[in-house]
Design goal:
mainly alpha, 67% helix
C-alpha cells in the first residue's frame, strides 16, 4: 500500500521534476525574450570572462559575444536557462527539511545558478583536444551536471538508513562508473547505428534528406545521455530492480530515440520551424525519469502470495 503515496520523497521528487520541467519548456517563449534574463546573461558572461582571465586565459566581452583563444561564443538567454533549474526546485520541495532550510535553499537558487552559469563558460578556455567540440560541450554542461545530481538524489532517497554512509558511497560510485562506461560505449557504437537506422528508414519511406542539423549537439548526445543516465539510476536505486526491467527500459528508450530523430527531421522538413533546443534537452531528461520511475520505483511487482497455512493435526 502507498506505492504512489505523496508522502514518499522519491514520488514527490520525480512528480515535481516532471511538472516543473513541463512548465519550464512551456514558458520558454517568454524567458527566451525576457529583458531581465538577457541582463542576467550579460552579467554571467562578464563573470565568466573574469574567471577565464583569472586562470590566465584570454577573454574579451563585447555585448553578449565572449571571445577566447578558441573563438567567439554568444551568451544568450538560452545559455543560462537550463532544465537543471526546475530539477533543483523539485528537489527543494521534495526532500524532507525544515521550513527555514527550505527557504534558505530557495533564496540560494539565484546565486547558485549564476555562478554555475559563469563556471560553465570556463569550458571555452580548454583546447579542442580536451573538450572536443566547444559548442557541444558548453551546451551540454548543465545537462551532464543534472544527470550527476539526479543520480545522487536517487541514491540518497532510496538507500536505507542502516549503514547508510558506506552503502550510499558504494552505490553512487558504482552508478557513476556504470553510467559513464555506458555513455562512452553508446557514443562510440550505438549512436552511429542509431543515426544510420533513421537515415535508412527515411530512404525506405521516400523522405531522404529530411534531417535536422542539430547545431548544438542535443540530438547527438541524446542516446548516450539517456542510456547512461538510466543505467546509472538503475545502479543507484535501492533496492535494485531486476535485469529484465533494465533491458525493458533500455529498449523503450532506444525506440523513443528513433521516433524522436525521425519525427524532428520530418517536423523541420515540412514546417521549417526549428525545434526548440531546450525542449529536446528537457525531453532527454524527462523521458529517462519517466521510464525509470515506471520500472524502478517498485523492485518487486509480483503479488506476494501468503504462505500456505500449516495443517494442524490434533492428537487425542
Amino acid at each position: 500500500p502507498g506505492r504512489f503515496s505523496w508522502s514518499r520523497p522519491p514520488v514527490r521528487f520525480v512528480t515535481l521534476t516532471l511538472l516543473f520541467v513541463a512548465i519550464f519548456v512551456g514558458t520558454s517563449s517568454w524567458w527566451m525574450h525576457s529583458d531581465f534574463i538577457s541582463t542576467v546573461a550579460r552579467w554571467v558572461a562578464a563573470t565568466g570572462a573574469f574567471l577565464i582571465r583569472l586562470m590566465g586565459g584570454e577573454a574579451t566581452l563585447t555585448g553578449i559575444s565572449l571571445r577566447t583563444s578558441n573563438g567567439s561564443f554568444l551568451v544568450t538567454n538560452e545559455c543560462i536557462m537550463t532544465p537543471l533549474i526546475p530539477a533543483y526546485f523539485a528537489a527543494v520541495f521534495a526532500l524532507p527539511m525544515t521550513r527555514g532550510r527550505r527557504a534558505m535553499y530557495l533564496l540560494a537558487a539565484f546565486p547558485v545558478f549564476f555562478m554555475l552559469g559563469a563556471a560553465r563558460l570556463l569550458v571555452l578556455a580548454f583546447p579542442t583536444r580536451v573538450v572536443g567540440s566547444h559548442l557541444v560541450a558548453i551546451h551540454g554542461f548543465f545537462q551532464v551536471l543534472l544527470a550527476v545530481i539526479l543520480v545522487v538524489v536517487a541514491a540518497g532517497l532510496t538507500t536505507p538508513k542502516p549503514r547508510r554512509t558506506g552503502e550510499l558511497t558504494r552505490s553512487i560510485a558504482l552508478a557513476f562508473i556504470g553510467g559513464t562506461v555506458t555513455t562512452v560505449l553508446v557514443a562510440l557504437t550505438v549512436n552511429r547505428f542509431l543515426f544510420s537506422s533513421v537515415a535508412w528508414l527515411r530512404e525506405i519511406l521516400g523522405h531522404g534528406g529530411h534531417d535536422y542539423l542539430d547545431p548544438q549537439g542535443a540530438l547527438l548526445m541524446m542516446a548516450p545521455y539517456q542510456l547512461g543516465l538510466f543505467v546509472a539510476l538503475w545502479l543507484a536505486w535501492s533496492p535494485r530492480s531486476s535485469g529484465r526491467r533494465l533491458t525493458i527500459g533500455v529498449t523503450a528508450l532506444a525506440f523513443s530515440q528513433i521516433i524522436v530523430l525521425f519525427g524532428l527531421g520530418e517536423w523541420f522538413a515540412h514546417t521549417g520551424i526549428v525545434p526548440h533546443i531546450a525542449a529536446i534537452r528537457a525531453w532527454s531528461v524527462v523521458s529517462v525519469l519517466t521510464v525509470a520511475f515506471w520500472l524502478l520505483r517498485d523492485p518487486d511487482r509480483s503479488v506476494e502470495r501468503p504462505a500456505p497455512a500449516r495443517s494442524q493435526t490434533q492428537h487425542g
